[in-house]
Amino acid sequence: xxxxxxxxxxxxxxxxxxxxxxxxxxxxxxxxxxxxxxxxxxxxxxxxxxxxxxxxxxxxxxxxxxxxxxxxxxxxxxxxxxxxxxxxxxxxxxxxxxxxxxxxxxxxxxxxxxxxxxxxxxxxxxxxxxxxxxxxxxxxxxxxxxxxxxxxxxxxxxxxxxxxxxxxxxxxxxxxxxxxxxxxxxxxxxxxxxxxxxxxxxxxxxxxxxxxxxxxxxxxxxxxxxxxxxxxxxxxxxxxxxxxxxxxxxxxxxxxxxxxxxxxxxxxxxxxxxxxxxxxxxxxxxxxxxxxxxxxxxxxxxxxxxxxxxxxxxxxxxxxxxxxxxxxxxxx
Amino acid sequence: xxxxxxxxxxxxxxxxxxxxxxxxxxxxxxxxxxxxxxxxxxxxxxxxxxxxxxxxxxxxxxxxxxxxxxxxxxxxxxxxxxxxxxxxxxxxxxxxxxxxxxxxxxxxxxxxxxxxxxxxxxxxxxxxxxxxxxxxxxxxxxxxxxxxxxxxxxxxxxxxxxxxxxxxxxxxxxxxxxxxxxxxxxxxxxxxxxxxxxxxxxxxxxxxxxxxxxxxxxxxxxxxxxx
Amino acid sequence: xxxxxxxxxxxxxxxxxxxxxxxxxxxxxxxxxxxxxxxxxxxxxxxxxxxxxxxxxxxxxxxxxxxxxxxxxxxxxxxxxxxxxxxxxxxxxxxxxxxxxxxxxxxxxxxxxxxxxxxxxxxxxxxxxxxxxxxxxxxxxxxxxxxxxxxxxxxxxxxxxxxxxxxxxxxxxxxxxxxxxxxxxxxxxxxxxxxxxxxxxxxxxxxxxxxxxxxxxxxxxxxxxxxxxxxxxxxxxxxxxxxxxxxxxxxxxxxxxxxxxxxxxxxxxxxxxxxxxxxxxxxxxxxxxxxxxxxxxxxxxxxxxxxxxxxxxxxxxxxxxxxxxxxxxxxxxxxxxxxxxxxxxxxxxxxxxxxxxxxxxxxxxxxxxxxxxxxxxxxxxxxxxxxxxxxxxxxxxxxxxxxxxxxxxxxxxxxxxxxxxxxxxxxxxxxxxxxxxxxxxxxxxxxxxxxxxxxxxxxxxxxxxxxxxxxxxxxxxxxxxxxxxxxxxxxxxxxxxxxxxxxxxxxxxxxxxxxxxxxxxxxxxxxxxxxxxxxxxxxxxxxxxxxxxxxxxxxxxxxxxxxxxxxxxxxxxxxxxxxxxxxxxxxxxxxxxxxxxxxxxxxxxxxxxxxxxxxxxxxxxxxxxxxxxxxxxxxxxxxxxxxxxxxxxxxxxxxxxxxxxxxx
Lengths: 332, 227, 664
Ligand code: HEA
Ligand code: HEA
Ligand code: CUA
Ligand SMILES: [Cu+2]
Hints:
The complex is a heterotrimer.
Chain A (H helix, E strand, L loop, with lengths): L1 H23 L12 H34 L12 H31 L8 E7 L2 E6 L5 E3 L1 E5 L4 E7 L4 E5 L3 E6 L5 E5 L5 E7 L11 E7 L1 H12 L8 H12 L2 H4 L23 E2 L4 E2 L2 H9 L1 H4 L12 H13 L2
Parallel strand pairs in A: 1-5, 4-10
Antiparallel strand pairs in A: 1-2, 2-3, 5-8, 6-7, 6-9, 9-10, 11-12
Chain B lengths: L1 H28 L13 H30 L15 H12 L1 H12 L5 H26 L9 H34 L3 H30 L8
Helix pairs in contact in B: 1-6, 2-6, 2-7, 3-5, 3-7, 4-5, 4-7, 5-6, 6-7
Chain C lengths: L30 H17 L5 H7 L3 H30 L9 H35 L8 H23 L23 H29 L12 H33 L12 H35 L6 H14 L15 H13 L1 H17 L6 H22 L3 H7 L3 H31 L5 H27 L16 H31 L43 H7 L4 H4 L5 E5 L6 E6 L6 H18 L2 H20 L10
Antiparallel strand pairs in C: 1-2
Helix pairs in contact in C: 1-17, 3-4, 3-5, 3-16, 4-5, 4-6, 4-8, 4-14, 5-6, 5-19, 6-7, 6-19, 7-8, 7-9, 8-11, 8-12, 8-14, 9-11, 12-14, 12-15, 14-15, 15-16, 19-20
């Protein structure tokens, strides 16, 4: 038993060190490396809760292990009822923790409820199996799997789903909020530091729940404005011959029944808006990087890349594939 | 019916010495349960109480779901495409089921004393249960074209809540049939009384439930539903 | 309830400790039981003799055989779900693996969760309850022996039904809480029909099993066992069973609605037609949260049984522990929304349910301190059962405190649906239920089988499983904080998740090794373990006053219970000798048991008990047919099978034992 006790405290020590280290790893979407008031709060809450929890655990575990050690060879069994011990420790200790934890929770709820000042803008996020559709209210900008926001100012989010329940989560910036059918969930987010943050779908939503990520990109105001302006534009006109052939192919083939490219005749609404697909960093909700090779692979047989996703394999000739990828890549 | 009578008469003669005699003594003492020796609730009584508890919870959850969906519906209740429910037939049905508790109660009282009157009284209550189920079916025919189980949530609730309840009434009828059938062969008396009493508990529960469902499904849509 | 101390006026002399430091050998047969057995044993043996062979197997209504079957069947389901978990862990060992397809992974974790919760943890408790509740309260069988057999058969068939879905590749795949609309119109194949029907089917078994346990504990306690002398395990089982009676209906309703939505296109959950997706969540968690205490309360009862025995003294603060048990049961019905903190409900309800969730830590703390206090005031004897009990305390507190963290709503919104939650619930489920059950198995094994287990083997089992358990589930906390969501069949590299996943997979294999070893220890004991005496541990509760294994009639003479520690008080055992000529206590003439009053355990009457019968199996078989026909979409056949089942029930009711009861 002693061995067990030691391995336990060893594990606790391991937790503290690894968690501290992980907090410094900027590659991981760690809740402990926050970059916004909401995650600042949960990180602080975690360290408070962790300290109290560690205290309670160490108390209980050492009391148990020590009892086994100390009371093993005794000849003296105490007959009293020991009710005071149970009552004092068993009620008072949890009650204190109760009060503190509750206060912490209320404080958090209150500070999360309303943004510090009026949100600069509203973004609509629509969940799909298994990708995200993003609209910027008051503009024509529509994009997918990338949410750009200006840094340092509250943004309102309106979340809703087109099919099953999803959950919008950016560990370093904001806790989760579910996307429900026919119920718009409003929340807000502020990002403190410019950068790109990993976002994830956190509610199980079917076979490709594992590949339903997005990027939350926080940019300085001016950069954000110009990005948004660019997104509002209709698609760039193809410049090379291959790109022109690609556009023709796209609007004539099945692609157009599912995808929209603003400024062309493609108006499908099943898949992501591809008007500026060339400017995205990742494809298929964070599944693959956006480059010519990966995009060709995706279009030819997306089922091999993200099995079960809603885009059927496209049996098209290598030259058509080359053209359409060239075209899509040109849509910056 | 007449067979039951004959059987219970036979039973009565057989049982008289014990059940009847004891019953009179107990009544004089002011205590009721003569057929339980000496005192205390039976395991059957507790079992039925728990069964009723679990069923009541289920219907409570169902009725709560009804109001939950009603207040989540923005378009008024019932939704504009459905007509308000018919009330007359369900009122009769509910009334019949509630009133049937009287013969049920009297029947159990009679059985407790080993009286042959028990059988016809319980039969009467049982027939009321059958009538309830039939009336429920008639109501479905009235509601049907305007509301259907698969048209909208309102229709699903209406048909399923009442249908589940009617199904339980049918189970109640089946229980009473068993008791009656058993007394046909074994007589009204100690052995039957315990079972009759437990079935009666269930019957009263079904009646109370009928009222709750009647108010929810048939009356509440009239209360501020259509804005 | 208020005067619970065994040292109330007139009874001060009753001992609450077992100060037998030098007791190295124990009687093979307790002298008191020996005397009682000598007087009435032969007559009872004849009256309670059971049909041998296959016929006996099918028709038995003996609570010990049924309890044993529950334990074995639930154990097999545990292995099944555990092997599912091993496959999952193998897939997750490294980033970007594709050993199994996403569809397979989804079926694996759904079935893993569903089977562990519904077909292992709850029935395992019923198994212990079935076997030991009648023994602990000093009676001869359950209140409804035939219903008991029925609830076992239904459990078995429902389990086979559910597991068969995996063989058919139609296993449920929407997670163990099957949120709509994913489980509804987005899963058109039979997968979720297996889920809805399978759980409805099982609920029949759980409900009647629970009612049976409650009534048994209320009406069949040995004379003198007033409420303040009821063993804590019995309190745990009774609270659990009462909770089942009230918690299952919302789940049944939800599954009924789901099935109707799926098959008859009803609209309960169809948001386009006035239905609501969140309704499912409310109904599910209205069951789901109480269910986690349904799993843990009997397990805590096992702990409250083991700790006093191996601390050689009565539990401290008995009334508080009882109150805490019952309070936990009640409070647990008011906290379900803490599983829905990220749904977007109003702040008012979030605040309310956060506070309600926190209150649970008070009764939990009371129980924890009662166990620890008992150890500190007693003399601790270390053996496998006690080591498991201590492992329980150590792991449960870790799982408990993370549960308390979730009450801080924004923090919960941060970690919900991440591996942090997976860590929490495995600590409380594995630590809070599996470890006590293993402890219970080691503790009661001699009673159940008549054989002792190897001490060293048990210690190794505990060490392996304890280390394996922590290795598997502890890193999940960190992984969750690092932002890894749950229910993903694969994950990218580069986020620092890989190492933890690998450690967990290694831990899971260590666990499998631990379980194989434990299995080996038990089999070895069956084959060549030394025979067990009546009371190998010098324990305090009544089950140890029977033979090892107990005779079909359990107690030759029903004792009078004098205290909370009947085997230590020096009077209860003696009462078996004193009453051995009292027909009311021996009941040698018929298949009978004693009925007593609910509160004080005063004798009310002698009851006739039913004997062996095949009706339960028939009823269960026709119910199975009904369910299968519903699954296949043949309602007429389902109705016919259901009707025949009704007729069999009619036949069953015809032979009520009280009808043939001798006149009093
Ligand atoms: C046996 C099962 C079991 C048990 C006992 C518990 C116990 C508790 N659980 Fe847990 N829980 C689950 C099984 C269980 N849980 C499961 C399966 C899920 C996830 C379902 C899913 O999503 O799939 C879950 C999820 C879950 C959530 C939702 C998380 C989320 O999805 O976002 C929450 C939120 O509040 C919660 C809270 C609690 C609390 C407060 C307790 C308390 O009862 C704990 C009380 C115990 C202690 C606190 C320790 C002992 C006390 C002391 C030593 C006294 C001193 C202590 C203090 C001062 C703190 N649990
Ligand atoms: C009582 C409940 C219980 C228990 C005991 C366990 C035990 C285990 N659980 Fe599980 N688990 C749940 C309840 C439980 N779990 C629930 C409710 C979920 C949520 C599901 C959902 O999201 O819907 C879950 C989810 C869950 C996940 C998350 C899946 C995901 O979100 O993607 C994981 C991942 O590692 C996991 C792992 C394990 C492991 C490794 C064990 C191990 O402890 C298992 C150890 C057992 C064995 C290894 C079997 C022993 C076998 C033998 C003795 C025989 C050996 C024979 C041969 C090898 C032939 N469980
Ligand atoms: Cu969308 Cu998970
Ligand atoms: Cu809970």
